[in-house]
Structures are given as structure tokens and as C-alpha cells.
Design a protein that fits this description.
CV3147-like fold; alpha+beta; 11 helices; 2 domains; 27% strand; CV3147-like
């Protein structure tokens, strides 16, 4: 049965991916607008289970790259990302059979649908982060041996760069430099791969999980938390749990080298009264500590919700005085292997913590 | 008659190009070492008059890019620049018939000979700056309509970037960003062009002029100034003139965005006693003013010589207390058209001056 993604599904994916995006991944509103516009113009997009891919299918992931605080001011048309996919095809002399997100969060969960609609391609129901992460080497593709290059970086003026390296950390380093020079936001196609590589390395089902999370949130009449619990319980992720409730008393942010670094402090309410949670972030939430002790860290998901509406709040929208609930979701096993923790465990982000998976049930 | 460049000619070109390099272009010692090593290993290189090129010959210029103060610490092997030429060939599916310098100064006058020796190619006796300039759009190639891209930027780790843009200013901007990320020094092949385009846009004879200047300096027994005058008198440049003599009393330098910015102050001696000359530079010397009035500006050449030996002193070797003579050489007409002055006249570097060509005779 072919699964189609239309305008309503884009709304749901954008909302659900904001939970999986753990505060980052760029403004979901931007990706949503761009994807909806493309689908309205070119029609709905097929969502393809990775199992349906042929081993030698050619899959080219597409994404926006840059600091979320910038992308709000610099709206893309969707053609920029098509340009980076076109450039990879020209480089490799091969036509893409599908595109795919490199992360599941904010703008990059919906952006590939804009590319797919414009190019008449399906989107693979999978990604390489299972959440949002700030850098291009933060990919199961990288962890499990796929080369990130050739990668194309393009901008809205028609400039493109093709990067080649045998070190995916260098891909991140060079592409980030180019992105900063392109005005802080660019469009990237990287980790071009075969259907077999997608099946071996991608985190499956994350787009449909985002869609289901978004739909559940949209339909939830009173308890958003219950809706999120129910959807996650049936996924390869752990069941969502509430980590903390309180009021934001401090937010620190700085944009540096194309990233947004900072932390938010939350004074506890009700059951958490008397305690303070600090969440540190680099684009995405990295670690949550209560009174100095970590209760959740990367790669597990830490998402801040509006305490009244249950809506997820991206890091750039965290404001003093907001009443919030902090959610934790354990990531699937493919994201928690020793090889994976080397790339995106707490220490790789400079956190003085050892990763301990969130228990399934509170 | 085929003109060959061997180890001795590389010595002369490196020395002569330091005069034409107006203080910049990178450490000539580095380019010399790399070129000599390649010629010793692979044999001498043919220096090809632009007139000998066929209209559809494929010429790929090669250069080092980066801040001169860095290149002294990071010695290239010569293979890095070959990598960028190879990458352009692969990109365009065409094999180079010759390489060529993009500037005549410091490292970049000799570096293409290392590439040429390793690849068995001739070097065209011409360049696109007629001197050294700090940026990639500072090229007669750009001024007279050649696209700078596709351009390849490579580093010593085997990373490469192919840049494509229809704006040569963007080429500079993006390649500079990549160069900074590659550690401050990279190897670039840009402005790939036909033999016809070389004939129409390059400044001819600059490699043989550098060689003749270097040889004259090497053989000059007492008066280096006389030797330089004699060689320049017979060139398409104006005859060299002495602008100032004095003692360095201040040098200010800062490395920013991959460039070395600064100025040197020289207190006059003998005929110039009581006056002070300030030379402003961005990698290369840009303008020389005596007591606040410009006496020479870009694109004309301003070169600082050791007052005793007559040897040219690059900006990174200017030291407090050194006794120096400042030389001025008017550039050829192709470098002084209104189109050229738009790109590299004094105002394009932020100098509050109007370009006035140095008179031929003092």
C-alpha cells in the first residue's frame, strides 16, 4: 500500500518532528511552508519504506544546513535544495531514485518533501540521526561506514560547492565553513548511497513516527503527554516520560561558528518544586541535569513542551517565564551502540556525563 | 626556440618575482624549494610564450592560497597543487595542455613550475595579476570576462572542493572560507581557460621578466637599483624608480579572515631626511604615502628593498630598524584600464586615493 504525504501529513510530520528534534533542527515552520508549497504545486509525495528499496537504488539525502536563528530570517524557496541534489547527480552521472532526510527534526524532516515534490521522487521513511543533531558526521550513515561525499552545498544565489574527503568529520568542517560564507544557511546533499546502504545504516520509520506523533498531538483533547506516550510505546524508541515540570528562569544563547550554543534553567513546580533543571544545547538539547545531576543526555531525546498546550518548544523559542514540561525519550538501539556513542555520546559534546539509557517506564 | 626553466632559472624567477610581488604572494623560499625539488626529480619545464598557444588549448592555472605568515610554517610537497589541477581535469573531462601562474610574486610565480614538472606540462609565460594581489577576483582573467570556475581547492590531507559560481567575487569569498577551514593554506586551480582566452586576458611575459630581474639582481655587483632599472626599461612595465630611502620605525600586522593587514612606517634618510613614508598592505603593499600624501598606489608596484644588498623584503620580513629603499614600478596598460581600476584600484582596497600612474622617469 503506497503511503502518500500531502499537506495535512506535512503539518503532522513538522509537529511530530519537533518532538524528535529535541529543540533543534531549524524552525519547523519554515520547512513546513516550503514543503506544503511544493506539494500544492506538484502533488503529494510517496513515503517509501526502506524495505521497498532495491539494493542498487540511488538515494540522495537533502537538508538545510545552518544556524536555526538565521533560517527564520532567510526563507528558502525549495529550489536551492533541488540544486544541491541536481549537482550530486551531475557529479556522479546518476539519477536519484529517492531522497531522504538526514535528520528527523525541525526543518529537515519536511524539507526533503519539498525537493521530492519538485523532482517527482519518493522520500524514504528513515533518516540518519533519529532525532536532530548539529553536525554532518552525526549520522548513522557515518557511524556504520557510508562516505558523506561527494557532498554538494548550494545557496540561493546559485553558487555550489562539491566537497570530497575520506573523513566525514572533515565534510562537516568544510561544509560548515562554506555554509557560514553562504550567509549562515545553505542546502546540502550528502551521503549519497545505495538502497542496500540505506537498509543497513538508516533508522527506519522515523518519518511515519513523526507523522503519528504530530497527528496524536493534533487530536489530543486534554493530555498531550498521554498521546505522546501512546505513540512512542509502539515505536522502536522507548516510551516517552516526563522528566521535569517548571518555569523558565534563565536562557543563555550565543551564535558561534554557525551554531547556537547555550542553556536554559527551569525552576521546578508542583512535584519538582525546590529543584532546578538545566538543559544544555548546541542547536539541539544535549543534556538535562536536575540540581547538577544528569537525568538524560544525548543521544536520548530531551524535548521541552509548553505545559498548557503540550506543544513542543524549539530552543530558539525558549523564553523567560514560560511554564514547561520536559520530556525524555530513549533512542533505538542502533543509536546507542558503542560506535554510535563515540560519535554522539555526551562526551563528544563536552558534557561531563556517561550515557545511561532512559528507562522505558517512569 | 624552446625556453627551459631549470633549477637556476627558478632561483632567478623567485628573486625577481619578489620585486613584482610587491611584498606579498607568499614566501618565495617555499615556492622555490618546492619547484626546485620537482624539477630535480622530473626535469626542467618549458616556458611557453602565450603566442605559441593554440586557440583551443586547455590551460589550468595553479596556485597556493592563504596567508603568507601561515605558509612559512606549513611546507607543501607540491603534490597538493597537482591534486587541484587533477580535480579540475576530472570535473571538466579534459586534460590540461599547460598550467600558468595566477600571479607573479612570492610563492605563486614558482609553484606552477612544481605542478608542471610533476605533470610534464609547460608553463605559460604570463599571469593574471602582473604582480601579486590578495584575492582571486584580482585577475585580468576576471576583469576581461573569464569565469573563475569551476575552481578546485585542495589541501594536503586529500580533501577537495569544487566551487561553481557565476560571480568571481563569490569564488574568492567561498574559496577563502574553505582555505581558512583547510588550515589557512590551500591549493587552488581556478580560471580554467582556452589558449584564446589566455592571449586575450593574460599579462604576457611576466615569468621571463621575473627571471630577468632575478638574474640581473644576482649578477649586479654594486648597484641593484641600476640593474632593476635596466631590465624594467625594456619591459611593458615602466622603468623602476626609487621612491624613498629610510629606516623602519614601526610595523603593524594582524592576520584576519586569512589575510595579513597592516602598515610600515619609514623615517627618511639622506635626501628624504625629515619625512616619513607609510606603506599600507593587505598581503601586498597597496599604497605609499610621504607625510600623508600618496606617491604610489595599486595597481602600480611598491617594493621594499634592503638598502645595502638591494634584495627585496616581503611584508612578513619587515623589521624595526631595517634600512630600506622603496621602489616604484608602473604597471602595463592592461592593468590600468578603467575596468581594471574598478577591480584593483586604490578605492577597492579602501585607500582614500585616486590612482595616478607613476611617471616613467624620475
Amino acid at each position: 500500500m503506497m503511503v502518500e504525504i500531502g499537506v495535512e501529513e506535512i503539518e503532522d510530520i513538522a509537529l511530530g518532528a519537533t518532538i524528535l528534534g529535541t529543540g533543534g533542527g531549524g524552525d519547523p515552520h519554515v520547512g513546513k511552508l516550503v514543503a506544503k508549497q511544493a506539494i500544492e504545486e506538484f502533488g503529494p509525495v510517496e513515503l517509501l519504506d526502506p524495505d521497498e528499496l532495491d539494493a542498487d537504488d540511488f538515494v540522495v539525502p537533502t537538508a538545510q544546513m545552518g544556524a536555526p536563528t538565521v533560517s527564520v530570517e532567510k526563507l528558502p524557496s525549495g529550489r536551492e535544495a533541488v540544486a544541491s541534489l541536481d549537482r550530486i547527480e551531475r557529479e556522479l552521472g546518476e539519477t536519484a531514485d529517492a531522497t531522504m532526510p538526514i535528520e528527523c527534526g525541525g526543518i529537515n524532516s519536511t524539507f526533503p518533501f519539498a525537493v521530492a515534490a519538485r523532482r517527482g521522487l519518493p522520500v524514504v521513511d528513515a533518516d540518519g540521526m533519529g532525532r536532530a543533531f548539529p553536525e554532518l558526521q552525526h549520522e548513522t550513515f557515518n557511524i556504520y561506514g557510508v562516505s558523506g561525499t561527494p557532498a554538494a552545498v548550494s545557496d540561493e544565489r546559485g553558487n555550489t560547492c562539491i566537497i570530497e574527503t575520506d573523513d566525514n568529520d572533515q565534510l562537516e568542517w568544510l561544509a560548515r565553513g562554506v555554509t557560514v560564507r553562504m550567509g549562515g544557511v545553505a542546502y546540502v546533499s550528502d551521503y549519497p548511497m545505495t538502497g542496500r546502504q540505506v537498509k543497513e545504516t538508516a533508522i527506519p520509520g522515523t518519518m511515519s513516527l513523526a507523522r503519528d506523533l504530530g497527528r496524536a498531538l493534533r487530536l489530543a483533547e486534554d493530555d498531550a503527554m498521554d498521546a505522546i506516550r501512546e505513540v512512542t510505546r509502539e515505536s522502536i524508541y522507548g516510551e516517552a516520560r516526563s522528566l521535569f515540570e517548571g518555569k523558565i528562569v534563565d536562557v543563555q544563547r550565543r551564535t558561534e561558528h554557525g551554531f547556537v550554543f547555550g542553556h536554559v534553567d527551569i525552576d521546578g513546580l508542583d512535584g519538582d518544586e525546590g529543584s532546578t533543571m538545566r538543559i544544555e544545547f548546541q542547536n539541539e538539547n544535549l543534556g538535562a541535569a536536575v540540581d547538577g545531576s544528569y537525568v538524560a543526555t544525548v543521544p536520548d531525546l530531551i524535548t521541552v513542551l509548553d505545559r498548557e498546550t503540550g506543544g513542543p518548544i524549539p530552543t530558539e523559542s525558549l523564553r523567560y517565564g514560560a511554564r514547561v514540561r520536559v520530556l525524555g525519550i530513549r533512542t533505538p538501539e542502533i543509536m546507542r551502540t558503542p560506535a554510535a556513542l563515540d560519535v554522539w555520546g555526551p562526551k563528544s559534546f563536552g558534557l561531563e556525563a556517561t550515557y545511561e539509557p532512559l528507562a522505558d517506564h517512569p
